[in-house]
Automatic annotation (TrEMBL):
Protein name as it appears in the record: PorT family protein
Tagged with keyword Heme: no
Organism ancestry: Bacteria, Pseudomonadati, Bacteroidota, Bacteroidia, Bacteroidales
Keywords linked to the UniProt accession: Signal
InterPro entries named in the record: Autotransporte_beta_dom_sf, Beta-barrel_OMP_2
Species name: Candidatus Cryptobacteroides gallistercoris
Boundaries of every Outer membrane protein beta-barrel domain copy: 23-184
Keyword Signal: yes
First and last residue of the signal peptide: 1-23
Coiled coil: none
Length: 221
């Protein structure tokens, strides 16, 4: 799956380069909010984060368009009852440098353009924050930018599906995203004595990753 997504993103980039001279294209800025939680995990609620970056739209014939973006995307999860222990919970936030490529189709209705959206994406983690709370106060822990020592996977890849509308220079998209692969990865550098590693393994050791809704607005020049 990861190879398929990477290949599709590379093909889209080559299409944008090869067709950019003949097709209508526009640059823009993009930003919005993410409402995320995690799969395979007992969630305590949805976490609201944000995303922002730059985008490029390549319009093709018959209502199709390709729109890659480069953005900072913050995602979070609020997990509860870690290892099925009451009173234990963990808040995890990861900020990714993300490359989504939106494949869109929709008819141009002159005043506006509604469209369907399918978006594979890949990303790399730039920063994270882990806040853990155990049953006892002494078991609480907060740390930043802990990766291998806690088993936090730095790479991400996934797929988003949604709908959008384009009015003049503005574009609004609602999209549901699924990160694929495990968020926790065992490795020789894990600090087995650390609280962060214990919480990560017991929350995500059997799978689970980010999923959720993003709402974004683009302004195209």
């Amino acid at each position: 799956m990861k190879k398929i997504l990477t290949i599709s993103i590379l093909i889209a980039a080559m299409l944008c380069t090869g067709l950019g001279a003949t097709a209508q294209n526009r640059y823009g800025v993009i930003g919005g909010f993410s409402f995320s939680q995690a799969s395979e995990v007992g969630n305590r609620g949805t976490t609201t984060r944000y995303n922002a970056g730059v985008t490029y739209q390549l319009k093709l014939p018959m209502g199709f368009s390709i729109q890659p973006s480069l953005m900072y995307h913050s995602k979070g999860v609020r997990a509860g009852r870690i290892a099925d222990l009451p009173g234990t919970n963990m808040d995890l936030t990861i900020g990714y440098l993300e490359l989504p490529v939106s494949f869109q189709w929709g008819p141009d209705l002159l005043l506006f353009r509604p469209f369907l959206d399918v978006t594979p994406y890949i990303g790399v983690g730039l920063n994270n924050k882990i806040s853990c709370k155990g049953a006892a106060e002494a078991e609480s822990f907060t740390g930043k930018n802990i990766w291998q020592a806690a088993g936090v996977s730095r790479m991400e890849y996934g797929l988003g599906v949604g709908i959008g509308v384009e009015i003049w220079r503005f574009q609004i998209i609602g999209r549901y995203n699924w990160n694929f692969g495990p968020l926790y990865r065992d490795n020789p550098n894990i600090d087995t004595a650390s609280q962060a590693a214990w919480f990560m393994e017991n929350a995500f050791g059997e799978g689970g990753n980010f999923k959720g809704l993003t709402l974004s607005v683009s302004f195209l020049f």
